[in-house]
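Submission sheet (multi-component)
Chains listed below:
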Amino acid sequence: MKESIAEQYRRVRELSETLSGPLATEDMVVQSMPDASPTKWHLAHTTWFFETFVLVEELANYEIFDPAFAFLFNSYYNAVGPRHSRPHRGVLSRPTVEQTWRYRRHVDEAMETLFSREGAEQERFESIVEIGIHHEQQHQELLLTDIKHAFALNPLRPAYSEGRITKVAVAGALAWVAFESGVRRIGHEIEGFAFDNETPRHRVFLEPYALGDRLITCGEYLAFMDDSGYERPELWLSAGWDVAQGQGWQAPLYWERADDGWRMMTLGGMREVEAAEPVCHVSLFEADAYARWAGGRLPTEDEWEAASGNVPTEGCFVESGRFHPCPDARGDGPAGGIPRQMFGDAWEWTGSQYRPYPGYQPPSGALGEYNGKFMSNQFVLRGGSCVSSRTHIRHTYRNFFPPEARWQFSGIRLARDEA
Amino acid sequence: MKESIAEQYRRVRELSETLSGPLATEDMVVQSMPDASPTKWHLAHTTWFFETFVLVEELANYEIFDPAFAFLFNSYYNAVGPRHSRPHRGVLSRPTVEQTWRYRRHVDEAMETLFSREGAEQERFESIVEIGIHHEQQHQELLLTDIKHAFALNPLRPAYSEGRITKVAVAGALAWVAFESGVRRIGHEIEGFAFDNETPRHRVFLEPYALGDRLITCGEYLAFMDDSGYERPELWLSAGWDVAQGQGWQAPLYWERADDGWRMMTLGGMREVEAAEPVCHVSLFEADAYARWAGGRLPTEDEWEAASGNVPTEGCFVESGRFHPCPDARGDGPAGGIPRQMFGDAWEWTGSQYRPYPGYQPPSGALGEYNGKFMSNQFVLRGGSCVSSRTHIRHTYRNFFPPEARWQFSGIRLARDEA
Amino acid sequence: MKESIAEQYRRVRELSETLSGPLATEDMVVQSMPDASPTKWHLAHTTWFFETFVLVEELANYEIFDPAFAFLFNSYYNAVGPRHSRPHRGVLSRPTVEQTWRYRRHVDEAMETLFSREGAEQERFESIVEIGIHHEQQHQELLLTDIKHAFALNPLRPAYSEGRITKVAVAGALAWVAFESGVRRIGHEIEGFAFDNETPRHRVFLEPYALGDRLITCGEYLAFMDDSGYERPELWLSAGWDVAQGQGWQAPLYWERADDGWRMMTLGGMREVEAAEPVCHVSLFEADAYARWAGGRLPTEDEWEAASGNVPTEGCFVESGRFHPCPDARGDGPAGGIPRQMFGDAWEWTGSQYRPYPGYQPPSGALGEYNGKFMSNQFVLRGGSCVSSRTHIRHTYRNFFPPEARWQFSGIRLARDEA
Amino acid sequence: MKESIAEQYRRVRELSETLSGPLATEDMVVQSMPDASPTKWHLAHTTWFFETFVLVEELANYEIFDPAFAFLFNSYYNAVGPRHSRPHRGVLSRPTVEQTWRYRRHVDEAMETLFSREGAEQERFESIVEIGIHHEQQHQELLLTDIKHAFALNPLRPAYSEGRITKVAVAGALAWVAFESGVRRIGHEIEGFAFDNETPRHRVFLEPYALGDRLITCGEYLAFMDDSGYERPELWLSAGWDVAQGQGWQAPLYWERADDGWRMMTLGGMREVEAAEPVCHVSLFEADAYARWAGGRLPTEDEWEAASGNVPTEGCFVESGRFHPCPDARGDGPAGGIPRQMFGDAWEWTGSQYRPYPGYQPPSGALGEYNGKFMSNQFVLRGGSCVSSRTHIRHTYRNFFPPEARWQFSGIRLARDEA
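Outcome: structure written.
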């Protein structure tokens, strides 16, 4: 039976608490870089979203928890007013974590009042609540992504979770799955939730192409490194070469050279790099350079989506409470002509810069700022990673980050032109 | 009769001298910002290109003019060796302008020796010479673009040319020219010169769309400014808003508020802004914000190219020795269902980020660095401006600049989705 | 009876805990700017000092609490090894506050073992312990200074302490106390503790001068502001003008314009500015500009010290557990020919850049880095503030900060030349 | 017979032309870093000084050459109005060099009109003209200093002058010249020209000290380098260590490691470093680190001036038209108890930060900005270099630069405390 919106709300809100469980109060305060946010901020910002876009609009007599929070926890909605500077989220010790939990409870209780209403009254705000739920799920992924970054910067190298975290390997040499040319339909269909940037569904023409049948592994990436991949400008986009040189990149983020090989930071702490697992935490620039070195290229997002049509999106994700290891029948089974590891392993950099689909219209009002205004100088990632929420694992989901971003769980799939 | 490669070479090389004619020695030394280059550098760099890629390869016993120039005048070819830092081109007083002219003559004489050879021997290097010619033409446009920037920064506001420079106006209200959906062919066909990034010709699918039948005028852009266009974040891409606020943009580059209205810097010095002329020197961010304000959007480069098929590319350009005013039958004639002002007025920002065409292959060797490695975080411009070379005015030419660039002669054409 | 070194140790160590008492765990983690440090870091760094310079040297079998702390909590001692980057202290969530307290207890217990030894053995390390105690007292002042800065940045404006914090006012118009020319002796004499930079005692010649008999008040400083003090470059040092313009200074740090006048952040939260209280949180540049506007100048540190000879240093300070309000018989009594408010009100900027005294010799080893290596581009402050430790309030103490620093409790005393 | 003010004016103005003689037009336009200025700017700015402070005030009917020049060639006089941004002097191609020469002639002719007047009328402005002359002499030194920097940055390494430029060596091991304690008089006496910052003459007390009897040589400095002087933080001021690491200092400015030893850029081009010549182009930070390594320290400016009393200031300087080699009886003669090489070899870093003398009063009006407002975060240099003007070589002259400045002709003299 389909989960009600109230049930979804409760489940997702509770997961945020579960994900914060392993963290000390101190962990929830720090911001390791301007792109990352403190856990405390994620918890409060997602709550502010419901308060601002649902409760204030829908619930008569709703009492705002603290008017100052509108300034502190607005991320980028210009239409809603001024905002606290993003790079300074980590200098805020107040509200405390305890106050943040109280804020969440205050909002959750008011939401229950809303959910207890019936009929048309409820339907009216369901779509906003649904966006809020998906919004919180996005921040759950960021919460894990950001705390990994903070822990990696700490010389004490704390572990978020106990036990070894392993990415699932797929056996065998890389094979190619070919696709014929023709007009394809891209973008979200009417059924189920999607963000505005996945619409409208539209036609594209694809020339013949092929995709690698699995993600690039750490072992393959090591071969690129051993072949002086980081020292050969001819392999790199010019802007990528500049940033790689300027920041001294020599390996994926979180990798460290040890006496006996490479080690890397994971949510379970430091461990050795495994040759067979998918490489992760590379930038678009590194993914692009690797692809050039390997004689291929990155897929466009249209190619990726068109190819993913028959690939099931099952896996294990954040909601399971265990973001790893992914049980992966996908990994072991026969490829059978479809690419594997498309969902829930690592976000896959595409060669497409993030721009609107033909006919795209952002919603009116503040929620129109959700996606559209970021459509410059970002590249699209597809598929979802091991820390993505289950419901974000879909064929049409468009994630996007600047080409130098490395702290996301981002990996590489190859493509090539076919005759 | 078709111009021989030697004739083309002589004509283009001479034009560089002609364009430098109005400049004092001092003007040819300065660099007004890291993105711009001194005139002297343009003159030497284009010469170095022929020396390095043609003479050293083809002419036995060719004597390099000065080995140090390889370091000084290499712009970005990693394969050819290390380079002098771009932002510091303006601190080099030597070689002097006189030495630079001698360098040009040295290379021109050696080129003549090559041209005097016959048959297969010559054909072998013709394609490289052709690239060098087009390369020098690109730098002729930059030479004018860069000196305009330098003169605009100088409080004395020198004029490059005498007489008033006027952009050609097109009469009447903006009309829309509609195009139906379907598969179109995009990219350069076999005939004539093209850069690698214009190839291969390939198919795309276009949903129904319409283009404005002329460029946006200064008067229309003033209406956007008067409607607080620069103060309303909801009109802007997020990154554009940040740069506009950070740099205090209030109008197009080169515009200045005077007591009696707006004035602007031109190659002919300061003059008042004319309402009917096309707006120029706007960034992609401004073009995009204007389009959103006007209820439209920017065309994709595919839409633009598909729409330009029947538009003639006649005009007056740099080669004429007069980069203005453009005699413009185009402007006055009846629109007749085709957009006007597509060629030679102002570069038109498209909404497409600059990425390779399907099947794109850069040439091998150093010339492979010409275009491909810049394919991130830039937007495509189409059409050519009043300072573009005649032979660069073609349907498939892909110009590209970062979205914040304003010092190019870049303007706005609107597009919209059709039902 | 003189306090033993062990008693001093216990008293000062306990005060650090007392001072941390009002803080939430979250407060102890944040770093509001590169110059400031988290409370947690102050608590651990002062502990690391005893561990490194006393316990490791003196106590056989001492077990280091955590070897990684040497990297995390070394502030600037190059001789002791590499250090964690200062600007990134606020990204460290671990060790937690609780671990930090355990670290302190671990070290305190080992120190007690040392203290239980007798005779020559103990004397040998007493001087290092004494430095460690004074070092921790310096960090107690910084702890308060830094948390004030962090709270001031937080839009919620938390208060560190309850109740109104008032700086003590001195009644009456500013009077001048004159001093004759002659040779004076400056620097620490043999008795009591002093830092190396206060030695050796030496002779200076002073031309005739006079000092203001009290600190400049907020009311007087407001007159400077009202007279366009922040808009008149002729009043400012050139470097000061640049920083004031660049950072938009319009008033002392922590002042905010309200509808009904100026308000300011204190350790007790926001409150209105009082005209009679000493102005505080001004930079050297502001103090110097004020003095020029007022027709005077800042005193040199030699003038200040020579004038302070007969001024008693009693007051109330951090050790009292109440850093405010200062009971101030000093303030109310007749001036009697001596400047008042010299000790324990606000650090007084002098016109002297911080350089070594003639004959100065830093100690050998790591402690030689304590003071000497900071002797460039800083100005000396004298006297001590309301958050200074009692034992740092002495005639020869040399505090020093860069001329743009404002977050210290720094105020203004005038001087002038006499005929 | 004493040179008249008009004769001085003509001589100094002509020297600026002579010094510009070896330069190409292009050389006179470039600015190699924000601290340096183009030759053209030096020539115009010194002319603007006479126009603004003398002609506009004194000569009825004087016609300003170009009103825009007041904006372009004001260096830092806030009282005179707004200024063109210093770091952008090198982007100005206009006025051209030829226009600048015409500007100079225009002003020189008007000055002659003034000089032709007689008696009281002339005396009234003589002191301003005298400042203007000394001001131009300061810029003559900067002209040479700045063009050396520009040529050193140019990979072609042009030479300003033909022939080898040699700094004069002093034979023998370093000896110490001791001075007793006591009250000394420091500062300019009534006779002859001096800048305001050299006054008033006042008393200081000096503890016993000694000075090295000559400058530190390149050979001695090489011993410091070979002893890892640039890798040992304990030798450095903390701020110096940071800048040395941040900028990768490994040797004095202009030194380059060659296969067969060290070479350096001079005004005569590149040549090998000579062990016996004085080391030059070191920062205060390097001078201070060297002194610490050598077991000494830098002299204070009071010590330096007190010691220089009996040292003659003869030498060869810019006015001779040959800024080198310095004929140096000073160098070869017996030391006879006085330090040698105090004047005209290299500016000598002192350990004194640049602050006003007791009783210092800047002049009123714009010329009050000449010296006083730079009195923070600079160190005093004494003695004058081989490119200083003859009349700037005096016992009381106070030069000043930030401690990281290296492009001046700055060297090292040791001092030490005596018992």
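Remark: The longest helix of chain D spans residues 120-153.
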